[in-house]
Design a protein that fits this description.
The complex is a heterodimer of chains A (104) and B (121).
Chain A (H helix, E strand, L loop, with lengths): L4 H21 L3 H16 L7 H17 L25 H4 L7
Chain B lengths: L1 H4 L10 E2 L12 E2 L10 H14 L22 H15 L5 H6 L3 H9 L6
Antiparallel strand pairs in B: 1-2
Helix pairs in contact in B: 2-3, 2-5
Classes of the chains: A mainly alpha (104), B mainly alpha (121).
Subcellular location (chain A): Mitochondrion inner membrane
Keywords (chain A): Acetylation, Electron transport, Membrane, Mitochondrion, Mitochondrion inner membrane, Respiratory chain, Transport
Protein name (chain A): NADH dehydrogenase [ubiquinone] 1 beta subcomplex subunit 9
């Protein structure tokens, strides 16, 4: 009896999204680390869950919970798509920065 | 939560020095390239990726190499791998899409992903 690759991938995806969602809600890094440890512990508790059907239920519950806690305005890094600096900061034209240096 | 307890330190300062130009040889100065995009040099990416991996809790520093597999060689589990990929995102200030993040399983893959990311800093 073992879990499928797809199941493991779903757990990993759930863990990653859970931490990302935490990052949206929690600004303080120390509080974040405490909360993240709790998330990890919740998953670790069922690492060797013998009942596959129960594990499937747990995973579904986790995904539902993730959906419930989704942030309405998630944090996006400034230069990533959707961020405040996305495609805003165009390179300075060559003619401007390559002028001879004049000391004032 | 290992990665969040201790943020990986920036292996590289936020400013970098421009080589002394022949036009004004008496001057050496630093520039923050706010606008210039472009890719990080592979050598630098490699050093910083390796330093992130070495600083990750539970990793045996002597086993870290450019070809190491997180799970097979470094003894991490799949959840640790998720954390270490998020540590790379932190270090280089990028957001890796979930589908791409799942494919990063070795140090080599991490280096090539970051080196080919135009916004990596």
């Amino acid at each position: 009896m073992s879990y499928t690759v797809a199941h493991k991938a779903r757990v990993c995806r759930l863990y990653r999204r859970a931490i990302k969602t935490l990052m949206d809600w929690v600004v303080d890094r120390e509080v974040l680390s405490e909360q993240a440890i709790q998330v990890r512990n919740q998953i670790e508790r069922h690492r060797h869950e013998p009942n596959i059907a129960y594990a499937e239920d747990l995973l579904k519950a986790g995904e539902a919970r993730l959906k419930k806690y989704a942030h309405p305005d998630p944090y996006i890094l400034p230069e990533m798509p959707g961020g405040t600096k996305w495609q805003r900061n165009l390179p300075v034209p060559h003619e401007i920065w390559d002028q001879p240096y004049v000391k004032h | 939560m290992r990665l969040l307890l201790r943020r990986p330190q920036l292996a590289r300062p936020l400013t970098f020095s421009v080589p002394v130009n022949a036009r004004f040889p008496h001057q050496s100065f630093t520039v923050r390239a706010f606008s210039s995009g472009g890719f990080l040099p592979k050598q630098e990416v490699q050093e910083r990726v390796l330093s992130v991996v070495k600083n990750f809790e539970g990793v045996d520093v002597s086993k870290v190499s450019e070809t190491a597999h997180f799970m097979n060689d470094l003894g991490l589990d799949s959840l640790d791998t998720v954390e270490i990929v998020m540590a790379f995102e932190d270090e280089f200030a990028i957001e890796i899409p979930d589908a791409e993040a799942e494919k990063i399983q070795t140090v080599e893959q991490a280096i090539s992903y970051v080196a080919s990311h135009p916004q990596a800093k």
